[in-house]
Specification:
The complex is a heterodimer.
Chain A (H helix, E strand, L loop, with lengths): L2 E5 L3 E2 L5 E8 L8 E7 L6 E7 L4 E3 L7 E6 L4 E6 L8 E8 L7 E2 L3 E5 L2
Parallel strand pairs in A: 2-11
Antiparallel strand pairs in A: 1-3, 3-8, 4-5, 4-9, 5-6, 7-8, 9-10, 9-11
Chain B lengths: L3 E4 L2 E4 L5 E7 L8 E6 L6 E5 L3 E2 L7 E6 L2 E6 L9 E6 L6 E2 L3 E5 L1
Classes of the chains: A mainly beta, B mainly beta.
Amino acid sequence: QVQLQESGPGLVKPSETLSLTCAVSGYSISSGYYWGWIRQPPGKGLEWIGSIYHSGSTYYNPSLKSRVTISVDTSKNQFSLKLSSVTAADTAVYYCARYPFRGSFDYWGQGTLVTVSS
Amino acid sequence: EIVLTQSPGTLSLSPGERATLSCRASQSVSSSYLAWYQQKPGQAPRLLIYGASSRATGIPDRFSGSGSGTDFTLTISRLEPEDFAVYYCQQYGSSPMTFGQGTKVEIK
């Protein structure tokens, strides 16, 4: 059974960098699939942030591209998100998820709430 | 960027009734790369439908998807108590992947 688990600070100060990690179990990242980050502000809809392939190829939402870095560590079977220069508008539940090429998100993490506040 | 508009915003129905949810795209979704997700409070979204009409593993057959081009529909034939939730459509044929704003199916 594929499982994804997000981890990272729940509180980040404005202008700092948000850092999250998604640990994958039950499936080797190196075996394929794309691995993505999606966020959901409280009471609002879903926004795709970006994705990575096990080779390291990355794909970002243009709306966030200047502030986002996604990386993968195949030895630890995990991938990470960094979002710089955060503001209150970046407060959201952050999910990690898996999808095949030209596919939909089939496995999701439970999500982690990140609040941007001083 | 493809904008997905879902309607209605809220659907008030009783258990046993039929639910019809709409998702309209601002431009054609290539190869029907459209998915539907169900989200309950405090939970991650769950994949229901992919490729516009294919049910994901373990999804009951009361859920069905249809449509192509710019107009897509999710139908729940007979609402069960556990089906009251928020539903999102998503297109993954063009980058960036985008989601609709959601339709809440609530108990009448």
